[in-house]
Amino acid sequence: MRTLKISLLVFILPISISAQWYQQDSGTNSNLQSVFFINGNIGWACGSNGVIVKTTNGGENWFEQNSTTTEDLREIHFVNENYGWAYQYHLILSTTNGGVTWFSQPFGPPENLVALQFINASTGWQLYYIIDLATFISKTTDGGNSWSVQYNLPNEYYDAMFFIDENYGWAATIWAVIKTTDSGMNWTQYTANLATPMCIRFADHQTGWIGSNTLGSYDISKSTDGGMTWFNQKFASGEYIHSISCPNDSTVYAAGYRNFFPPYPREEFILKTTDGGTTWFEQYSGDGRLNSIFFTNDTTGWAVGDSGKILSTENGGVTSVDENLSSAFNFYLSQNYPNPFNPVTKIKYNIPQSPLLGGDGRGGLVTLKVYDILGREIATLVNEESATGGAGEYEVEFDGTKLPSGIYFYQLKADQYLETKKMILLK
Question: How far is residue 298's CA from residue 292's CA, in Å, rounded to a whole number?
Answer without folding.
Answer: 16
